[in-house]
Amino acid sequence: MEPVNLMSLNSSEFKSFLDSFDHVFSDCDGVVWTKVPLPGVGEFFDRMKQLGKSVHFVSNNSLRPRKNYEDLFAAAKISDGYENLTVPSTAIVEYLKSINFNKAVYCVTCPETMNVLQSHGIACKYGPEVGVKQYTDYLEFLIDDEEVGAVVFDSDFNVNLAKLYKAITYLERPDVIYISGATDRYVPLKPGQLSLGTGVFTEIVSLETKRVPILLGKPGAAFGQFAMKRAGVTDPSRVLFIGDMIEQDVGLGKASGFKTLLVLTNNTKEDMMEHPNLKPDFYADSLGSLVPQLNKIQ
Questions:
Q1: What is the pLDDT of residues 218-262, one digit of tens each?
Q2: Strand, helix or coil for residue 207
Q3: Among 10, 57, 205, 277, which residue has the least CB neighbours within 10 Å?
Q4: Rounded CA separation 258/160 (Å)
Q5: Please, are residues 63 and 112 in contact by the beta-carbon 8 Å criterion?
Q6: Are residues 139 and 186 in contact, defined by beta-carbon separation less than 8 angstroms?
């Protein structure tokens, strides 16, 4: 079934679209804001709430501290945005707590993810932040550490070869848990262009260790289930997931059983149609572009 352009629907068809879901889960970067809020996003979510929809946010971005998220939601005129936000770091903490994890985590993560883990009493090891001059000196990073019981990848933009050596060494032990938060191969560093992300390094480690991580970030189904649990949602078919990335956002929606809406802030219609097995159910230029149709609904 081909994606439906919401901009082309008449009032009756648009009303049927709205009646097909009860909960809105939305990505943030590229959907709600770039560096500043995108036009009309606050009004879009206000109208969704007025129409009886619950509104939640699901992002792969554990990099932002709470204050930065709160400031961006406030600038977008979205109330309770942070309180209704799920990111990989929170999912990772809850997973480790659920299995009574009591060893150390080796973090190939952004500082904020490690801060969240440590704030919940989880011991973390990390680094080194630089490499060595002689390649033979990398031998020191091939030594196992029995205190490490899990390896976590999540948006480490300072990743290096030494860290990969350590991660691979620890994961040679089958009992070491392998977790990945954000898996983004590409990230929207500037409008209209996707740049290489940190997910490629997780892929390298997975290939070398022949292990598949527990995906607690988009597009992992476990992450979608965690977001539903936090939101108190039980029926995935009544969720509309909004995103701007095909692999991450549409992928999460399809893996979780959500309806999917792709906004074309970082993809063109042609990009969307080039994915024969991963197409959204609906698409629109932006959330703001849908506000006029929402305002017609009584």
A1: 999 999 999 999 999 999 999 999 999 999 999 999 999 999 999
A2: helix
A3: 277
A4: 36
A5: yes
A6: no
